[in-house]
Amino acid sequence: MRYPVHAAPSSVVALFVKEGVFGTKLVCATTRRNKPEDLSLPGGKVEPGEDPVAALLREIREELGKHLRIFALRFVYERTDPADHDSIAWVFEITSWIGEPQQSEEGIGVSWTNPHRLLQDNCTFREYNRGLFLHTNLIPWA
């Protein structure tokens, strides 16, 4: 499937989900060196002329390490930012990979965590995450 290249600013989000203990779901979260308490999902801006899948793979390589290999991803949905109606986010669920996400050369920390942690008050994108988790049924009561 080909994804259109938008004139509007757009971004990509990677949703890595794995089984934790007792069947709980864990998501891969990243933190910035200057704000380690602010969890977010891996992703970033789509560069001019870049399609969303190419942007997603580039962002994963930059943020989660060059040794992580993606084998299957599933387009989840396209979301317009409520604060900026001209901005589009392409959200992909990563369903198969080899290797473990690890801290990148950019100083981005990586951890597997309960999705509820991404809804805490100190998370910049908490409302965005809430909508994403509701849409994907990761946290049906978010």
Could you describe the 3D structure shown?
The protein is of the alpha+beta class and about 140 residues long. The protein has a single domain, classed as Nucleoside Triphosphate Pyrophosphohydrolase (Alpha-Beta Complex), CATH 3.90.79. It has two helices and seven strands; from the N terminus they run ββββαβββα. It has helices at about 50-65, 125-135; strands at about 10-20, 25-30, 35-40, 45, 70-80, 85-100, 110-115. Strand 5 (about 70-80) and strand 6 (about 85-100) form a beta hairpin. The longest helix is centred in the middle third of the chain and has 13 residues, at about 50-65. The protein is globular, with a radius of gyration of 14 Å. About 25% of the residues are buried.
CATH class: Alpha Beta
Output the structural class: alpha+beta
* Poorly predicted segments: none
Total beta strands: 7
Q: What about the largest sheet?
A: 7 strands, mixed
Percent of residues in helices comes to 10-25%
CATH topology: Nucleoside Triphosphate Pyrophosphohydrolase
What is the CA-based Rg, rounded? 14 Å
Please report the distance between the alpha carbons of the first and last residues: 31 Å
Q: Strand-and-helix sequence, N→C?
A: EEEEHEEEH
CATH H-tier superfamily: Nucleoside Triphosphate Pyrophosphohydrolase
- Domain count, please report it: 1
Q: Approximately what portion of the residues adopt beta-strand conformation?
A: 35-45%
What is the helix tally?
2
What shape does the CA trace take?
globular
**Average pLDDT number:** 79
Can you name the CATH architecture? Alpha-Beta Complex
**Oligomer designation:** single chain
